[in-house]
């Protein structure tokens, strides 16, 4: 199928970013309501909507999600009428997390209901960095695009960080790092985040590479007493993250943490980074490296992608 005949709908931000990085932006005809990068896709028709208020407090968002899932309802709705009008040849989606984006089951159901098109579904399911490279290659293969230059570029940037941090553990104790993915309930980032922390020269607490995030008690954070705390709540920009962080920083015991005493508590734009398993995970690695080891790394992300709390 030639590029001019491609009509791709992406229902996940990381999928949109992968397509754009593979120079397939012009073939994208529709997006999810969360797809906001790169800028040139922002005016495209939106094919999904959420059944919850993303501006609500984090505890309220969590409870709403739990209620929807327990009721066997999807958190997101697909706009079948918009999809029908767009007549996609392909739909890019995911089956990694029902909280992150429209479920694969809902996408398959929607695709079968279309009258004027029978789109091919490409579903992404990354848990570690290698999975992300695999997804990029799979998307490239689906559209006849050579993904190797992109993957090699991303891996080269990763290896620059890895090379500079590789010997640190021999000359100093690596900092322990708590990456907070949600504040109420308290959850710590997992999947590819511990892997990124390790490459950036830190020791990730509370979670293992490839595992899903799980709630942990406040006392666990206090007892672990991390050297560095990084707030990266899923889907929140810098301003919203600063607001959410106050739920923890106002706690009486917060001031006793080593990270607080040494001024090593940070907020990030995790709507753009960390939670999107696409090309910008390497940007996320560079952000972590800059935070963890400012004496080695100065990429210039400070003030745009991260700030001191």
Question: What proportion strand?
Answer: 5-15%
| CATH C-level category of the largest domain | Alpha Beta
Outline: globular
Task: Please name the fourth-level CATH homologous superfamily of the largest domain.
Answer: Nitrogenase molybdenum iron protein domain
CATH-level-2 architecture of the largest domain? 3-Layer(aba) Sandwich
Mean pLDDT comes to 93
CATH T-level topology of the largest domain: Rossmann fold
Written as H for each helix and E for each strand, in order along the chain, the element string is EHEEHEHEHEHHHEEHEHEHHEHE
Proportion in helices: 25-40%
Largest beta-sheet details: 6 strands, mixed
N- to C-terminal distance: 50 Å
The secondary-structure class comes to alpha/beta
User: What is the total domain count?
Assistant: 2
Rg from C-alpha positions? 20 Å
Count every beta strand, where a strand is a DSSP E run of 2 or more residues. 12
Regions with pLDDT < 50 over 5+ consecutive residues?
A: none
């Amino acid at each position: 199928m030639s590029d001019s005949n491609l009509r791709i709908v992406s229902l996940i931000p990381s999928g949109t970013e992968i397509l754009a990085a593979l120079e397939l932006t012009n073939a994208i005809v529709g997006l999810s309501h969360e797809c906001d990068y790169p800028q040139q896709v922002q005016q495209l028709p939106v094919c999904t909507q959420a059944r919850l208020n993303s501006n609500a407090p984090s505890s309220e968002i969590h409870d709403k999600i739990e209620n929807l899932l327990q009721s066997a309802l999807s958190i997101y709705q697909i706009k079948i009428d918009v999809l029908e009008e767009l007549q996609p040849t392909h739909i890019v989606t995911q089956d990694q997390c029902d909280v992150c984006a429209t479920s694969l089951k809902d996408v398959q159901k929607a695709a079968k209901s279309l009258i004027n098109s029978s789109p091919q579904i490409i579903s992404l399911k990354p848990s570690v960095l290698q999975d992300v490279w695999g997804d990029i290659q799979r998307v490239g293969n689906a559209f006849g695009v050579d993904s190797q230059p992109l993957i090699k570029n991303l891996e080269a940037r990763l290896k620059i960080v890895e090379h500079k941090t590789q010997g640190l553990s021999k000359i100093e104790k690596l900092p322990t790092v708590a990456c907070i993915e949600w504040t109420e309930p308290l959850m710590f980032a997992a999947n590819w985040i511990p892997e990124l922390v390790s490459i950036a020269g830190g020791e990730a607490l509370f979670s293992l590479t490839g595992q899903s995030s799980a709630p942990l008690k406040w006392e666990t954070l206090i007892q672990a007493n991390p050297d560095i705390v990084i707030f990266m709540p899923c889907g929140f920009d810098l301003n919203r993250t600063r607001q959410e962080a106050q739920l923890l920083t106002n706690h009486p015991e917060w001031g006793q943490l080593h990270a607080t005493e040494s001024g090593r508590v940070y907020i990030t734009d995790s709507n753009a980074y960390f939670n999107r398993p696409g090309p910008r995970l390497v940007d996320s690695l560079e952000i972590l490296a800059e935070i963890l080891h400012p004496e080695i790394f100065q990429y210039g992300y400070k003030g745009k992608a991260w700030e001191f709390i």
